[in-house]
Write a structure and sequence with these properties.
Layout lengths: L1 H38 L9 E4 L1 E4 L4 E4 L11 E4 L8 E7 L15 E4 L4 E11 L10 E7 L4 E4 L2 E5 L4 E8 L2 E6 L3 E9 L2 E9 L9 E2 L2 E2 L2 H6 L5 H4 L5 E13 L7 E15 L6 E9 L4 E11 L2 H8 L4 E4 L11 E10 L16 E5 L11 E2 L24 E4 L4 E4 L5 E4 L9 E7 L6 E6 L3 E2 L9 E9 L5 E3 L3 E5 L12 E4 L4 E4 L5 E4 L8 E8 L6 E6 L3 E2 L9 E10 L4 E3 L3 E5 L14 E3 L6 E7 L2 E4 L7 E2 L13 E2 L6 H7 L5 H4 L13 H7 L8 H12 L5 E7 L2 E6 L1
Parallel strand pairs: 1-3, 9-23, 13-24, 26-33, 35-42, 46-47
Antiparallel strand pairs: 2-5, 3-4, 4-7, 5-6, 6-12, 7-11, 8-9, 8-12, 10-11, 13-14, 14-21, 15-16, 17-18, 17-22, 18-19, 19-20, 22-23, 25-27, 27-30, 28-29, 28-31, 31-32, 31-33, 34-36, 36-39, 37-38, 37-40, 40-41, 40-42, 43-44, 44-45, 48-49
């Protein structure tokens, strides 16, 4: 019993000792915990002051919200953090007037945060309600909207509360804001080239069918859409004016890691010009780098005569461009981001005020989530030609088509030793072409001319009876080339060059008489090989006329004013360029006798018209024999009738009096008189005189015509009257 009691006492003692040890340990630990709480006391957050729709907010910050269930902008709020304001400011939230519409989304609710233009020391958070029945939640964005400067700027979005139907975003100033859908945007990627920041930008947007409200999603300015019912012609129609897509990209140093507070440090501006290509059709697209400070542009890249809708869409809605910030040395420890603005414009400065040059709003976006140091961005190597266009997205320029249609044709025989080479060639993109020409008698001809600009070439004088080989290599201005096949031809065997043919067909004709003293000489001549010809002219009164002109190049010659009643002899010697000559025969003619003009024709003082037996006197005028009286033949018709082609000679008599025909001769329509002649004798009143002087009647006074006809008639008859009416010309004299 005692042993057991002793054992129990030992057990109890040990239990007590263990209990005390545990108690001491717990007391120590509890004591340490209490000391920690006393040295770091927990202070609960001080709640912000909350106002409904408006309230005065100071440096401590506050929340202004709209919770009224009946308000169309229920859910809108601004959360102003401590320190964002330096002084007390009355803050209010309201819906914008109904006449102000969101340019990208007319169903959106525009909310005014006032005072307008207020800037904060740091970014603030705003909530913008959206219309759930008219918006695609997947396309919701938040926008800052300045109708005065026609700017729409996307805001960085923190979140979208689909239950409360609000978009939560950041801003550093107060203005008009809205949330809504938008199809326009930009793929923005920050890269580096040679250790400096650069950007890859691709603008995109859905192409509307009628282009009456937007162009690729970029909203039109109201004044433009008011003037033009279909703005699409700015991009597609055949117009001589120019439009451009102006793109401005800024590199911005990040000041805050929460919202959009940034400081621009560099910029790069590219413009894609659209130019109508005129008679060639299609559109030219040209990328230029634009300096806003100097107003100067540098052309970087272009494509001629793009035309179809796909290509236009590629240039204005999908071309990936490279923007470089070569002038800025980045701080290795700071973060940077990109800001992008773009618009369709008629002026390279897309930041001009509303209505000056721009056709659309200036649409601004940014890569809000991509804030990186220079060491954190990837190196970009796909602009090897330095034209600011991603090499991987450029259309591959096609080489020239193969040269074709050679002249001489391939294997052509008997070619002249003075033959010229020619060919045809074109380019798929109509690039300008130059040619390298290979030519000789060897099977693999050597280069004889490079960068030749035309499609013909003179190889010089060749050898007879030789085979020549030649080849053309076409080159465009993009470094592409296309060789043609090797063509060949053979020159003709050497032959004796033939002299010219004998001069022939002289005018005046051989042994001609009664020639005018002002006569010109002419002849015909040719060469068997079509060699160029010159002529030596011999002329005079002797039987072996002397030379008067050598190396004459035409087949006519004016010997000057000759003498009356003289026989002249003349001869032509034809010469080719090979030294060959051919003598023509000696021709002769006799000039008219002095004083014979105005006298009866020699040997033919009168002539009888076999049709009615009337006898007419003749008169010599120079070398021609004329009727001295007006012709009077045919049946008289009334002046108000027209002569017809009825086989009957029809005439008019002055004043419809037949006796006047006996005195003055008949009057005839032009077509009527041209059918009749009098045995080769000229009808002085109509045929030749009227042929030569009909047009004069339309320009001169009748009194002048009187004088002209009296001089031509060569005798002193009094011209009574000349009457002109359309194609009727009447001449009366006695």
């Amino acid at each position: 019993m005692k042993e057991g009691s002793k054992f129990e006492r030992i057990i109890m003692k040990r239990k007590y000792t263990l209990f005390l040890s545990i108690l001491v340990l717990l007391t120590f630990l509890f004591s340490k915990g209490c000391k920690t709480e006393e040295s770091n006391p927990v202070v609960p957050d001080t709640p912000k002051e909350v106002f409904e729709e408006s309230g005065t907010v100071g440096a401590n910050g506050a929340i202004v919200q709209v919770t009224n269930q009946s308000s169309p902008i229920k859910g809108a709020y601004v959360d102003i953090p401590e320190g964002a304001l330096s002084a007390n400011v009355m803050i209010s939230i309201s819906q914008a007037p109904s006449n102000i519409k969101a340019p990208t989304d007319t169903a959106a609710l525009i909310i005014q945060f006032e005072p307008m233009g207020l800037h904060f020391n740091s970014e603030v958070k705003i909530a913008l309600p959206y219309n759930s029945t008219n918006h695609d939640p997947n396309k919701l964005k938040a926008f800052y909207y300045d109708p005065d400067s026609a700017i729409v700027r996307e805001l960085p979005i923190e979140s979208i509360d689909y239950d409360k139907k609000v978009v939560v975003a950041y801003t550093d100033h107060f203005s008009k804001f809205y949330s809504g859908s938008s199809d326009v945007g930009a793929d923005i990627e920050m890269v580096k080239i040679n250790g400096k920041f650069a950007a890859k930008i691709r603008i995109f947007g859905e192409y509307p069918g009628d282009l009456t409200n937007t162009i690729y999603g970029i909203p039109l300015l109201g004044v433009i859409s008011y003037i033009y019912s279909n703005i699409g012609y700015y991009l597609q129609e055949n117009r001589d004016s120019e439009e451009l897509v102006g793109i401005h990209v800024s590199l911005e140093e990040v000041i805050s890691t929460i919202g959009p507070t940034v400081k621009p440090v560099s910029e790069c501006n590219l413009n894609i010009h659209k130019q109508w290509a005129g008679i060639f059709g299609g559109i030219n697209a040209i990328i230029e780098k634009f300096d806003y400070n100097s107003g100067e542009s540098i052309s970087l890249y272009g494509m001629d005569r793009i035309g179809n809708a796909q290509e236009i869409d590629l240039w204005f809605n999908g071309k990936t461009l490279i923007f470089r910030f070569d002038d800025f040395e980045p701080n290795l420890n700071k973060q940077y981001k990109l800001g992008v603005g773009f618009a369709l414009s008629k002026n390279p400065n897309i930041y001009l005020p509303f209505g000056i040059g721009r056709l659309t709003y200036l649409y601004c976006v940014g890569n809000f989530k991509e804030r990186r140091k220079i060491s954190e961005v990837n190196e970009f190597v796909y602009d090897q030609d330095n034209n600011y266009v991603d090499d991987r997205y450029q259309p591959v320029n096609q080489p020239p088509n193969e040269p074709s249609n050679p002249n001489p044709s391939n294997n052509a025989p008997n070619q002249s030793i003075n033959v010229d080479l020619s060919w045809q060639c074109s380019d798929p993109e109509s690039d300008p072409l130059t040619y390298d020409i290979y030519f000789r008698t060897s099977a693999n001809p050597p280069l004889v001319k490079n960068n030749h600009t035309s499609t013909s070439y003179d190889p010089g004088t060749l050898d007879y009876s030789k085979e020549y080989n030649w080849k053309i290599v076409a080159k465009d201005n993009h470094g592409n080339s296309t060789p043609g096949p090797i063509w060949k031809f053979t020159t003709a065997a050497q032959t004796v060059n033939q002299p010219p043919n004998t001069p022939s067909n002289p005018t005046p004709s051989w042994n001609a008489t009664n020639q005018s003293i002002n006569v010109d000489l002419s002849w015909d001549c040719s060469d068997p090989e079509n060699d160029p010809l010159t002529y030596d002219i011999y002329f005079g009164t002797s039987s072996n006329p002397p030379p008067v002109k050598s190396n004459h190049t035409s087949t006519s010659y004016d010997p000057g004013v000759l003498q009356y009643s003289i026989t002249y002899n003349w001869k032509i010697v034809a010469k080719d360029n090979q030294g060959n000559t051919k003598n023509g025969p000696i021709w002769n003619f006799t000039t008219i006798a002095s004083g014979s003009t105005g006298q009866p024709c020699p040997g033919l003082p009168t002539i009888t018209d076999s049709r009615d037996g009337k006898v007419y006197n003749t008169v010599q005028i120079e070398s021609q024999c004329w009727l001295k009286e007006n012709l009077d033949v045919g049946t008289m018709i009334q002046v108000n009738q027209n002569a017809s082609n009825n086989g009957v000679i029809e005439k008019y008599c002055y004043d419809n009096d037949p006796s006047n025909c006996n005195i003055y001769g008949g009057l005839y329509l032009w077509d009527e008189v041209m059918q009749y002649s009098t045995n080769g004798v000229h009808q002085n009143s109509m045929e030749q005189i009227l042929t030569t002087y009909l047009l004069i009647t339309q320009m001169m006074e009748v009194s002048v015509l009187h004088l002209i006809f009296q001089m031509l008639l060569g005798y002193k008859y009094d011209v009574l009257k000349i009457k002109c009416n359309s194609r009727k010309v009447y001449i009366y004299y006695r």
